[in-house]
Amino acid sequence: MWKKLKLWLFPTEVEGFKFDPIDRDKDGLVQEGTPFERKVTVVKKATKKPAAKKKAPAKKSPAKKTVKKSTPKKKK
Length: 76
Prior knowledge:
Blueprint: H1 2-9, E1 29-30, E2 38-39
């Protein structure tokens, strides 16, 4: 039963029917002048966001040299 309903709602094998027609004249109708003429809602395509600029690597300060602390030697 579901297959028949699906085929009735979405006729794929009928000549001239298109699932995703384009409304080129922007009047809200697709497949004009055919038995499949229907209204469409405009779906805006997602626009690509501009790529974020890469930040320059942070400049590191030169490594600090450490002086080894020496302890005074104990006299015996």
